[in-house]
Description:
Its EC number is 6.3.5.7. Helix content is 37%, strand content 14%. The protein has 14 helices and eleven strands.
Amino acid sequence: TKAAFDRIKETDDDVKAFITLNEDEALKRAEAIDNEGIAADKLLAGVPLAVKDNIVTKGLKTTAASKMLENFTPIYDATVIEKLNAQDFINVGKTNLDEFAMGGSTENSAFFTTHNPWDLTRVPGGSSGGSAAAVAAGDVIGALGTDTGGSIRMPSSYNNVVGLKPTYGRVSRWGAIAFGSSFDQIGWITNSVKNNALLTEIISGQDDHDMTSSDRQVPNWAANLNENTNVKGLRIAVPKEYLDEGIQPGVRAVINNALKHFEELGAIIDADVSMPHTKYGVPAYYILASSEASSNLQRYDGIRYGFRAPDAKTLEEVYVKSRTQGFGDEVKRRIMLGTFSLSAGFYDAYFNKAAKIRTLIAQDFANVLKDHDLIMGPTGANPAFEIGSEIADPKTMYMNDILTVPVNMAGLPAMSLPAGFDNGLPVGLHIIGKAFDEQTIYNAGYVFE
Ligand code: GLN
């Protein structure tokens, strides 16, 4: 734990991965664990890890990178934190993100932008940019993230680390600050596939606090990764939409190399596959996720949570001024887009239509996965971009998510795995699996790594 804080002190002035450091508490806890002696059944005794700042931590400030929650200290722990506490982990601190996890660069944080440790002029991706940068900088071996439309996988791709979004329902969302509840899922960004498997195992499982959490048995993913793990005969689909002209040539080259490697390891690559609704994913996702967000964010009314405008004189002013001053531009954009899409006059034209597209996208996946084990392609069409280069143009920013959002619409598990470099910048391989089959994704990642 001391070494983790030493490393954070070395790197974080430049990288700015953390909003809040938990140094005093963490060192106290580590010392207590040293004194108690490490119990054999505690899987994480004294292991320092980081937590995205939209996951609530009892007694430790949780901001969602929003002015709205700048001084918010939760009175309870998220279920994932309870599970980690039960294994004696050490929480070193809370990592930066796009405000309420809305964004793809951490530039939407109300406080500061995180920098990519591979090139400090570039974004770390988002919205879990702080978590990915903390792992890439060597501060911690794992950091919790959330993924509504790619927020674990995209920053993992940009930072050359491993990020897995579990199947929807695998991990309890209790205590994750809600964005798009039918898409949100908590998962890990880690320095290795095996660490990811072990950590995800620990946070998975049914939870009475989350009706959508699944009672499926959680396999021993990590223990199943060993010298016998292989990909012989594994059927890998590479949809033609995943490597088309929209993908930067350097990225395509890295991915083709990775696929060749899987072929050498005995997998069967099938590139004669189409996912025709992929291109509708971004518009449909931004309507649906923003609709859910507009509803979830109603609770920030200046009364129940967080910020209240100091100059408000009437009840109406409390609502209007608190929300006007407490939310950033991107959050307001989504609330407006979502409220519009849900309004009586436009519901059928927007929300309902987008919901139908969601079904078509899920069917695309079902068709391909019925006779393939995995789907692969790039996580992003390009490597990390320059800070400031896209923030003024939301549509360009949204288009970065073209390959990640369909997975959330179908609720499937998917990983971004370091695959190589394009001009010195990391490129992630996107590995999508069948629902509740995280094991096959981990197996592929493990043999490739
Ligand atoms: N970039 C996407 C968005 O802005 C995904 C965010 C996320 O997964 N939290 O909505």
